[in-house]
Design goal:
This protein is of the alpha/beta class. It has nine helices and eight strands. Helix content is 39%, strand content 17%. The strands form two sheets. It has a six-stranded mixed beta sheet. Strands 3-4 form a two-stranded antiparallel ribbon. The radius of gyration is 18 Å and the shape is globular.
Length: 234
Amino acid sequence: MRISFGQPAFIPYGGFFGRQLNSDLMILLDNSEFARGFTFVNRNRLKGPAGEVWLTVPIKRKHLGLQTIRQLRLHQPERFSARFLALLRHYYGHSIYYPAVALEFKAILDSVQDNFLQLVLSSLDSLKSWLKIDTPQLLQSELGLSGRGPQLLIDLAREVKASEIVFPYLADRHFDPLEFKSAGLKLLFLKYNQVPYPQFWGNFSPDLSALDLYLCCGPAARQVIEKGSRIIAP
């Protein structure tokens, strides 16, 4: 079995889904710590007339210290919901795919309340459906394993009886590949080069959220991700 790992992230970019397309299973590390500094876990980019538009999901932090991703709660979820839906309408309202996307995200936002992980999982399910990706996802917490670093990933791989792991390109700068090889795991790396696609609002901007890709290209978005994904076996 070939697996990949990812942090649960709100509307991630195409490379995240490129790893899913090249995996039999993706394990989402919901027990990993939510970074205090910059992170793509709760923010990504869409596009407007002036170029890239950063969208951030506001998280409750005051007096809460370090939190895992599964513990996160939205700050003022109603306000975020209204802002996000208004942003979609303003920048993508002329997309033929907008009505269905807006309707689904409104239902998601209404149902998850302030639960960030549920917002992420529901959004990922919708994006996977639109992109026609059927790779299953499994939460780290469902496997009941904890820890940090390479050993945690090795333990998770062993738990699901994986033989191969797909990492993002250059991820091995942050760990020793020999640890995985000694555990009998083959390492592969996915290099994602965003293929240009027709975007609204001016010159092409690479590596935006895959939501931009779908709203611009519809069902053809999967082909764009496939073209930009290349597996490298060291």
